[in-house]
Write a structure and sequence with these properties.
The protein has three domains: 311 residues, no CATH class; 107 residues, Phosphate transport system protein phou homolog 2, domain 2 (Methane Monooxygenase Hydroxylase, Chain G, domain 1, Up-down Bundle); 134 residues, Up-down Bundle (Methane Monooxygenase Hydroxylase, Chain G, domain 1), CATH 1.20.58. The protein is mainly alpha-helical. The longest helix has 36 residues. It has 26 helices and no strands.
Length: 582
């Protein structure tokens, strides 16, 4: 073995890590917000959490990404600490699948079908199919599938490079002398932990161990402690991800580390204690790639079965080790950690935007209530809510821009666009609530009173405004393009009502039934009502754009107005919101 073999080993490791990252990122992108919804829905008990953690890790092929996601979700307040324990344990079981896939490289057979199971034989076909999908498909989902296939092929190519680079070691006496150090289990654990911690991938370190095993120089007695140490080393990623998060999120890392350390200590004691008593005959036997995959799986399943009944105790241990706690802020979910899984980050931004919309609606209704029943307490609440809406717009807007720079799918890009449009409209609705508050304050301070007919007309207009607010928010929350089409006819209805109210006010001015001062206040109210309904229309259009792709707003509204359903809905609106007889 010469210096070029070392270069080949380093290159193989680089290809392996790059392939694993490419495959994992593409799988995460395809899963999108489904991961987050599954985590919320299926963490009600430890066994569901266990299955979910294993399933998601198998799907995204990265236990490290899974743990980082959990730290981000706990930091955001989306998940409770106790909900993550089963997921972490399941993630450790799910990550063993990679070792089984890599073990296929050691298959030896003359049978063509069995040879086709060897990754080095079928991965070139997957690479070709992946490149065709990436270059020839217009659909983002198919291109993502292509990247998964190419990533897997690069990973397997890296494995082959590592295997070929270490094959000369079998004939080197120096290598045999180095391996004698691994007869000490503690050295094996330490080497496995340090190496895995450095490259931050247990799959890669297991892959290198499997490549070394193919030389025939690694025994079960050497491999098992290294495998145990690799589980400790993989905690480094979770430890790094816990920097700068709240204390509850730090506890996720503590649980992950405690789970692996306790499992390793107990595993070492049970295994080598049993060896002292029963003198295992296989300890000096050479282990193959399949044997390493088997040991890896048995150890992780053993650790999970051992500690799953003690989930509450692990949580208590984490709380004791990280004692003081701070409440997660309302915007804590805007965590850079979640940018590693853009689909989850977008799903959280969607939930937060929905809450922003609900707050904007609530604030407008509070401001309308001030018109007839002014109270200082309600005024304070409206001002505080407006401050929150400004923070929503600032934080959400900046975060959504960051997300769009992290290689999201076309579907997610459209969702981000809808959210960016909507947060601007929600913030403007909050501004109009403040304008209404100013009008209400003027009415209250100057003891102004609208005439009976004017008050009756405003009640009808407010009823229509409340209706359009609810419709816009509901279609936005559900991302329902069909429901969004019913908003525009109601917006047109409100425009008709405002024109009619203005005309009636002019008539009352001419007869002396209304004053100029009240006329200014009324005009401000009508202007703000009209602007709010316009923003509701914008929100509905953003929902339709997400489903249909970018559309020219005016062309779309013109097209919509030409439809019979629009005319029917407009007639229904005008009939429902009839102003009282003058």
């Amino acid at each position: 073995m010469d210096i070029f073999s070392v270069f080949t080993l380093c290159g193989g490791l680089a290809f392996f890590l790059y392939g694993m990252t490419t495959m994992s990122k593409s799988l995460e992108k395809m899963a999108g917000g489904k991961l987050e919804r599954l985590l919320k829905r299926m963490t009600s008990n430890p066994f569901k959490s266990l299955l979910l953690g294993a399933g998601i890790t198998i799907a995204i092929q990265s236990s490290s990404a899974m743990t980082v996601m959990l730290v981000g979700l706990v930091n955001s307040g989306v998940m409770e600490l106790g909900q993550t324990i089963g997921v972490i344990m399941g993630s450790n079981v799910g990550t063993t699948l990679t070792a089984w896939i890599l073990s296929l490289t050691g298959l030896e057979s003359e049978n063509v079908l069995l040879n086709m199971l060897k990754p080095e034989n079928f991965s070139p076909l997957l690479a070709l199919a992946g490149v065709i999908l990436i270059m020839g498909s217009k659909k983002q989902r198919r291109r993502d599938i292509g990247r998964i296939l190419v990533g897997f092929s690069i990973l397997m190519y890296g494995m082959e490079l590592m295997k070929s680079s270490v094959s000369p070691l079998a004939d080197m006496p120096e290598f045999s002398r180095i391996l004698t150090a691994f007869q000490n289990p503690l050295v094996g654990v330490l080497v496995g932990a340090v190496f895995t911690g450095v490259i931050q991938s247990s799959a890669a370190s297991v892959g290198i161990l499997q490549a070394l095993a193919l030389t025939g120089s690694i025994t079960y007695g050497m491999a098992i402690p290294i495998i145990m140490g690799q589980n400790i080393g993989t905690c480094v990623t979770a430890l790094l991800s816990s920097i700068g998060v709240n204390r509850n999120a730090k506890r996720v890392s503590v649980i992950h580390i405690a789970f692996n350390v306790i499992g390793t200590v107990v595993g070492l004691a049970v295994f080598f204690g049993g060896d002292l008593i029963f003198h295992y005959t296989f300890m000096d036997d050479a282990v193959g790639a399949v044997g390493i995959a088997f040991c890896h799986t048995v150890f992780n399943v053993f650790t999970t079965a051992l500690l799953l009944p003690f989930s509450r105790q692990l949580e208590k241990l984490a709380r004791r080790m990280v004692r003081s706690d701070t409440q997660a802020s309302e915007f804590a979910f805007l965590d850079p950690l979640l940018l590693r899984t853009p689909g989850v980050a977008i799903s959280e931004c969607t939930s937060m935007t929905n809450r922003m919309g609900a707050l904007a609606r609530e604030n407008l209704l509070l401001a309308i209530s001030q018109l007839s029943d002014f109270t200082p307490e309600r005024e304070t609440e409206i001002i505080q809510n407006e401050d929150k809406l400004d923070i929503y717009e600032d934080r959400l807007g900046s975060y959504l821009v960051q997300i769009s720079q992290h290689g999201v799918s076309m579907e997610d890009i459209r969702t981000v666009s809808r959210l960016l449009h909507a947060i601007g409209d929600f913030e403007r609705i909050g501004d109009h609530a403040l304008n209404l508050l100013d009008s209400a304050r003027e009415i209250h301070q100057r003891a102004l009173h609208f005439s009976g007919p004017a008050e009756a007309e405003l009640r009808v207009l407010v009823s229509a405004l409340e209706d359009i607010l609810s419709q816009a928010l509901n279609c936005f929350t559900a991302a329902d393009a069909a429901a969004a089409q019913s908003v525009e006819p109601l917006e047109e209805t409100i425009d008709h009502l405002i024109e009619e109210v203005r005309a009636r006010h002019v008539a009352r001015l001419q007869t002396g039934a209304c004053t100029i001062q009240l006329g200014f206040v009324l005009n401000d109210l009508l202007t703000n009502f009209e602007r709010v309904s316009d923003h509701c229309s914008n929100i509905a259009v953003s929902v339709i754009e997400e489903k249909r792709g970018a559309i020219a707003r005016h062309a779309y509204l013109h097209e919509l107005a030409a439809k019979e359903t629009f005319a029917a809905n407009l007639r229904a609106g005008l009939e429902k919101y009839q102003l009282p007889q003058a």
